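note to self: dont lose this again. the chain is below, predicted strucutre after it. 584 aa total, dont forget to put it in the shared folder this time
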Amino acid sequence: MLQKLSSRLPAVATGLRSAWSEGYGLGDLRKDVMAGLTVGTIAVPLSMALAIATGVPPQHGLYTAIVAGALIALTGGSRFSVSGPTAAFVAILFPIVQQFGLGGLLVASMMAGMIMVTLGLTRMGAVIQFVPYPVVLGFTAGIAVVIAVLQIPDFLGLEDVKLGEHFFDNVSAILLSLPSVQPLEFGVGAFALVVMILWPRLRTPVPAPLAGLVFAALIAYALNHWLGMQDAGQSVETIATRFSWLVNGQSGQGIPPILPSLMAPWHLPGPNGEPLVLNFALVQALSGPALAIAMLGAIESLLCAVVADGLTKTRHDPNAELIGQGLGNLVAPLFGCITATAAIARTAANVRSGARSPVAAVVHSLVVLLAVIALAGLLGLVPMAALAALLFIIAWNMSDTHRFLKTLRSAPPGDVTILLVCFTLTVLFDMVLAVAVGVGLAAALFIRRMSLLTQTDQVDLDRHPLMHALPDEVAVCDVNGPLFFGAAERALTVLHRVDPKIRTVILDMHDVPSMDGTAIVALESLVTHMQQQGTRLVLAGLKARIIVKLRRAGLRKMAGSLTYCHDLEQAEKVALRWQAESPP
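---
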């Protein structure tokens, strides 16, 4: 029994096993180590910036890349995906932190992990691919706008800006605080932004984010310590000056140089700074955010796996990937990690750096771990304005402006509407509402398009090779397309207006692939109407399974009134016999 059940469950760690099944040697290990070093270098500044953008101290982003990044790589279904904190989650996680604090965010992440594991075990990985492209493009562009707006206060050095959950309130608070712009903060942020934009032109192996943050940190240190700006009260704010930590009786500024340790997320601070109380009310309040995290995590991770497949000509296991992502988000919060998912940019860098297996993602986690232990003091020197500049770059890349504008210019009007609705709802409300409404609009648009394909036309008997012998009292109508709730009523209502002189109607239904309950009810109504008019009905060419459905619904053969025929030739014979037996 257990063996039979296990055979039905999705496999775990298929990414790792598929890599090793092809043969894994020292050459492959060398490539994985080099790729992991490259991606780990990129991940350190990104993890800090995304954690701060989410509203939590930077070390929690680093812990996420360490713990969740390694665990997901070892248990997921993609060979090349690199997981950690991502920009897509900022718009969802920031409001959760505002409402429930760090502890609430970690509990919600664990709940989302359970949901993703369930999705993987029930083989729902393939369902995610049915989210339409305009929906994905719309909510990712909307998230990019939200991220960019949240970075403006740090980039300009604005004072006393309290950001919240609502877009217009945040914009209003920023506009009111514009007179408090700090020239030094803005100058450092602008310098870092220019470096990150121009650095790739030098074609050096050093990643642009790292170069921008290092140069910005050097300038900030010079301004604060060598030029005396700190003594004059005009210092550039850094990670070390904004964040402090207290762990096991030890305290300090910036990032704690210690390993992530096991902790109960519900014992961490809530919105008021006090530890959370884990009860049913809290779980119920976090169920909506957890569902949003799971939905976006599943979409983001599987899209990333598809991108990796396209770059490497491999195939991932979507159900195993969901299980891996779920396990990562279920376990990692126990070590102080925020929500993790596969990161497309880091995954692409991993592939381009020559990665061969999930070992590269594990090496990336080890690089981040070494940075936390050995370079925590230096990481604290990074200016907040420079991190804001890095997030501007991330938001710009995430918005995919070129494709957004191209879709607006060239896509059908329905898809453009879906894109704009998803974008607007994401910015003004949240991603869950945007996706739900977007998928609903896409489904309605699909139903409308399919209904237009379903038609009922009367056949010209004089031109039909099989029907030319039929008398004028017999009509042949051709029904094309699926008969479902969006099309059945319109397609069959046409037959209610058949010429009263017609005594027999043959419906050619060879091209009807399916019928739903609404179509069956509409057909019952048609049969009743024709019986009242004294008109006989022949259904020709229906699939056997559809005939079974109709018989179960009560539409059985009635002598001289209703019958089923295999093809038009048999239908013609029946119609001629009925005419002979009961002439007009």
